[in-house]
Inverse folding.
């Protein structure tokens, strides 16, 4: 477990370890669909990458949204998105 650490300038896969009250600066943050334990962390100036199962899930949601507006509305509501912030 990483606790109260500051990480700067490299790549981190969030499923590789638990993170508590950590700060990530200028990082490439990778979400790969694995189990994650993140509590109280801050992400400043980070880039995000979705790989593996996470990328597959996002691609499937994107497809569903493109074929059925009611699904897009349901997903937007689930994520708390306002009408000004639409899923594409």
């Amino acid at each position: 477990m990483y606790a109260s650490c500051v990480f700067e300038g490299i790549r981190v896969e969030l499923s590789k370890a638990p993170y508590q009250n950590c700060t990530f600066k200028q990082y490439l943050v990778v979400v790969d669909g694995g189990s994650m334990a993140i509590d109280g962390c801050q992400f400043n100036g980070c880039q995000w990458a979705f790989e593996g199962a996470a990328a597959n899930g996002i691609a499937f949601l994107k497809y569903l949204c493109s074929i059925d507006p009611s699904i897009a509305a349901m997903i937007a509501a689930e994520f708390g998105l306002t009408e000004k912030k639409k899923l594409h």
The longest helix spans residues 52-67.
